[in-house]
Amino acid sequence: MTDLAGLQRSFLRAAMNAPYLEREEERQLAVLWRDKKDQAALHKLTSAHMRLVIAIASRFRNYGLSMPDLIQEGHVGLLEAAARFEPDRDVRFSTYATWWIRASVQDYILRNWSIVRGGTSSAQKALFFNLRRLRAKLSRGGEERMSDAIYGEIAEAIGVSKADVATMDVRLSGYDASLNAPIAEGEGDSAERMDFLVDGASLPDETVSEVIDAERRARWLRGALSHLNERELRILQERRLSEDQATLDALGVRLGISKERVRQIESRALEKLRKALIDHRPDLAAGG
After folding, report:
1. pTM for this model (two decimals)
2. Which of 163, 188, 193, 229 to pair with 243, CA 20 to 30 A apart?
3. What would the DSSP string read from start to end of 25-81?
């Protein structure tokens, strides 16, 4: 542990003591890396900007993640900036690299701050990283919880809903809790949070029973429908078994009969269907 701390201190000293680059030297190094993939040029260019990585990473040290990890992710962003930098544009490398370093650090925080992924949109990401600052700025009287009015101001400033602000506030105020954590510490008490979660789904045996019952009812219905003639079956299908149920008038026109005749055939088909079902299952007669 002592050796690791010593290495970290040595790294920080080396980063802080790296010489600054003049604009022209910076441009030449960037050109060498872009055109010839000169590793020495890349190393010199990035080493001179490691203090920028450390400065940006230190702004996010209050999210519960280690500084070495934040600096490492910032260095990844620095390398990405070097790969994309266009030295012919009239922009200093530090100005261009700042965005990539910050984006890399923020993405790392969002991926590791909680086991629940958040900040999946640009607005949510802005809310995550600005909520604490805006809350401190807008809160009055040292309130621990934000009022509805402050939620509204923050939502308007960032461009999200008040519900999103409230949800993020709860997330930032809480912590990840394991479902296997004990409810209360004590000898002989083994109850876990998971033991008190209620599953609204049916039990496996109930699900199987429902499937079997549904298949049985479908089989009974198919058997009863076989007792109908072709016209009765067509009328019943279009009047009772179709999502877009046909009217008596429309069905009468298609069959070339009156709507009253269609109604009579439908009633007769339903009665035959009922009789066929009762003959197969006499106990159904008790249900009407």
Report:
1. 0.53
2. 229
3. HHHHHHHHHHHH--HHHHHHHHHTTHHHHHHHHHTTGGGS--HHHHHHHHHHHHHHH
